[in-house]
Amino acid sequence: MNHMHKGPVAQDPRRRFGTGAIRPARRKVTIDELIAIGNRYHKEGELRDAETIFRKVLEVIPNHPVALQFLGVIAHQTENFDAAISLINRAIESAPDYHQAYNNLGNAYEAKGEMEKALEVYQKALDLDPDYFDANFNMGIAQRHLRQFEDAAESFQRCIEFDPRCADAHYELGFARQRLGDRVKAQISYQVALNLDPDHADARVALGEIFTTVGRVEEAIEEYNVGLETQPDHLKLLAEKGVAQRKIGLLEESLATIEKAQELNPEAISTMLALGSAYQTIGDITKATESYMKAVEMMPHSEAPHKCLLFVLLNVPGLSAQELFDIHRQVRGPFDKPEFTAKSFPERNRDPDRRLRIGYVSSDFRTHVVAMNILPVMVHHDHEAFEVFLYGQVEYPDQITDEFKKISEHYRSTMQKSNDEVAAMIEEDEIDIVIYLAGRFDENRPIVATYRPAPIQVSYHDCATSGLEAMDYYLTDEILHPRDTPEKFTEALYRLPVYYQYPVQEGLPEIKPAPVIENGYVTFGCLNKPEKLNDQVIALWSRVLDAVPNSRLYLKYFNHYSQESMRKRWENKFADHGIGADRLIFNSGMDDRASHLELYSAMDIALDPFPFNGATTTFEAMTMGMPVITLLGSNFVDRVAASIATHAGFPEFIAKTKDDYVALAVEMASDPVKLNALRQGMRDALHQSDICDSEPYARSVEAAFRDMWRTWIETGGYKEI
Fold first, then answer.
1. Architecture of the domain spanning 353-496
2. What share of the chain is helix, strand, coil (3-state, %, to 5)?
3. Per-residue CA distances from 559 to 563, 586, 607 (Å)
4. Model pTM?
5. pLDDT, tens digit (0-9, with 9 covering 90-100), for 538-576
6. Strand ranges, E, within 251-320
């Protein structure tokens, strides 16, 4: 959630302008009358007329402080910030105790982006009048912009003491509290703001977002609906309602809601991103890509649109390796900072065998699939050889966050810190090797790498190149990237013996007999995101269903298929290839982990999509005894399942061509007894394989880090392994 002000701060209803006039000694009655007329024009929004009046005052009294400060406010409101600063400074020179002028000077500095100067002059206003509400409020706004949320909370608390019925102050206090991680108190503040002002859309949006975050999605939608009753065209209310609708499976309604918001303001970046996400969720990758590309064009230096675009592109079939690389460079190139590239860290101890300081940067030190992948390394790190620092972009820590903190020497929160501030933290900690996890996903921070905070920088658990010149290595393996891989990188590839690693889990559901034994027909299945099921996938799966008589295809992804209209959408796609709706089984609903794994008991054979394979989904299917048929591609994303299957000891699950894919499905389906035997023994084989052997895996990762370090010492550069 971000409530940064748009446009001139003067246009924000929460911006407090001090317009109280100093009562100068009456030199001429006409001057006071002119000031009153100008003030009236200003209040009515007639800025040009107001300016004319105040300039007439200056013709008589060139340094009249009230006229000067009003002209400064008008200059601010017309986005002439330098003129505003000059005029208001003249007012202060004429009347050094003019606290309203200091407040307005702070507003002008803030609008210009000079937040530190704004804080200084707000403080001067408060030195003159500590109870000055407007300066306290504006101080809080500036502190919020500077991510000084504790100070901001104090400022808004003072405002509430002065005026307990100020809804804006309660909202801003809630915002500060939420950014400090106190969701409960934030919710209280938002509710108080709404009690005072039921039309406070920002507070209603913020309250709804909290409800959505904690799983109270229906309540969030109710909040948005209440707001939309009186503000039916409010962009943020519409966009967030659309997001909430999507979370409970109202996919068509979600798309319609967000489309309405986008039509109201085609230039709003937030709604353009929400629109792309809505298209992506229903599997319309073409429209999703178009939306994200428009967002990138609208804000070429904003990280969010780039992440969305680089993620969705992984689902696009037929993109060549060169095309994929070129797009990554096109959207990430503007973030490169050549001025930092030459940093050589001359003071760094270059002992090749010393204890190394390594830092992991991630938003996934919490309940998340990346955490599941990286925990085996963390648990087995050799802390005599490596001092481990974690830089966590984790807004709401959980028990997994606590586990990460316990198994590392240092945990630093990067919340509310800019990229350059995070880079400064890493550099101050004298990190030797910094590892950026899952760069294009969630709230991860790969752009920090452009500041070169460490001698060696590594991309780990991302699905393609970072596209950044400052990223030195990309961890992979021989299956994901054989020596003749066509995939292109800004990084040097470093191939581990095994790439994916999963912990052996306790309390797994019992593996039941293959359902074909009782049903008499084979059930294929896929629990991957529907956005991965492109037309080529559907065409191939239709061939499989056609080749295996009476077989079924079981599909589920959370509550995606809960609506009849959405099920019909997918039925029509298969019908285009001659597959009737009676061959498709849809399931929906939100499951806990145990219930989710139990779903595999209804399936015999998993079908892997392409070009974006399942990773965790593949491992989970195999954990429940299901073979996963996967088509070997040429890039990371369409070789993921092949890497997992190979290192798990089941290379026979890999098809090299689409014909092989169909033939493999027919072969597996033709022998239910063999299929069931495979099912019963697969979990034990998986748990005894390299893919679940955490300690040797951790040693291999550490060996890679040590090798990178020695290469840097010897050459000052990087090499492919």
1. 3-Layer(aba) Sandwich (3.40)
2. 55, 10, 35
3. 8, 10, 20
4. 0.87
5. 999 999 999 999 999 999 999 999 999 999 999 999 999
6. none
